[in-house]
Write a structure and sequence with these properties.
This protein has 430 residues and is α/β, with parallel strands linked by helices. Helix content is 41%, strand content 11%. It is built from 18 helices and ten strands. Helix 8 links the parallel strand 3 (154-157) and strand 4 (180-182). The radius of gyration is 23 Å and the shape is elongated.
Length: 430
Amino acid sequence: MAVIDTTAEQRASTTLPYIWNPEDNQSLSTTDRIFAAHRGGKIQVAGKLQIDNPDKLSLVYTPGVGRVCQAVATDPALAYRFTGKANSVAVVTDGSAVLGLGNLGPQAALPVMEGKTMLFRQLAGIDAWPICLDTQDPDEIVRAVTAIAPGFGGINLEDISAPRCFDVERRLQETLDIPVMHDDQHGTAIVVLAALVNALKVTGRRLDQVTIVVNGLGAAGIACCQLLLAAGALSLRGCDKQGLVLTGRPQVLRRSRELFPDSIRYNRPVGTLRDALQDADVFIGLSAGNVLTLDELKLMAPDPIVFALANPDPELPPELGHRHCRIYATGRSDYPNQINNLLAFPGMFRGVLDARATTFNEPMHLAVASALADLVPARSLSEHCIIPSVFDPQVVPAVADAVSQAARDTGVTRSTAWMAQPSPQTDIWP
């Protein structure tokens, strides 16, 4: 896969517009860095072997390929040895929740899917394929993904809106024997938990001692609530546009956390965001920009921890966050403490592919959060360093190891006896 780059002169003379302006014809010019980088697409398919004579053609295609087909038909597990299935992930979207831009449809989602496949390849050595479905019906999505699943070792659901994403992920996990994960849910929750564990270390508190407010109960917000409870949080309040709609005794919330998507009463709030923030220690924003005011921030307990993760504008502006919060984090790369899904998904899929896992589960998510938190050494831990960089070369191996071990510990790996077979001769291709 290759990125189409611009010249040094173009890079030096242009800006980076964040929002597309349909009236700005310059945005389509090759002198725009963003559009130039995407011209012709950002990925390509390349074979591992050069076919330059009839003998080589007969080995990789007909007639030689027929023997491999017959072997796989006899023993489907051989697909993991003699095809790319063992290292392939489908990145699947319906275009209903593209970034923070909304329901743009499958074609407009393709640039994001291409970018994600580049990250899979560069960071984790995984061959990922963008699949954009022209339907937003959960039944059709499940049927389509089930139909293409034989060609892949894992399924990464991406940019599918709530509540359909919960149903789609659950049904695919039940149907398929390969790992399925909706990254917008679980990737976000894992990195949030890792960052919060370290933030609490800096402030001298524990997860079971603090009151946490999660604002925005869509796909990511619900997953955060679920994982925080699984990790030991005892005081959790969930808010959405209508106000405080998730609260209760920790034991009840923990037992019912898998049912949150169906049980949150969005239209029957028991209070407001201001009510939820009273004496709260932690605010986790997965909602919209500038919804948290300075007056509301002052309602929180001393040394507040604020994760304002809305993009591009955080729930609390950075100039206020850095001045009035003990610890402040965003989803942006231009401020310290960036909470980014990229810390999780490449290593997670590397781990399940290596372990030949059949699913993702909660112990894996908890293991990844712990591994990410541990990557920040005690000597480096501070208000401005609670999570490793996405460019830290230790991230993917640490996450992959954590996932692989958790998969083995929970018994969700398939037999890998085929891996002990002798490798094919390496001198057949001069």
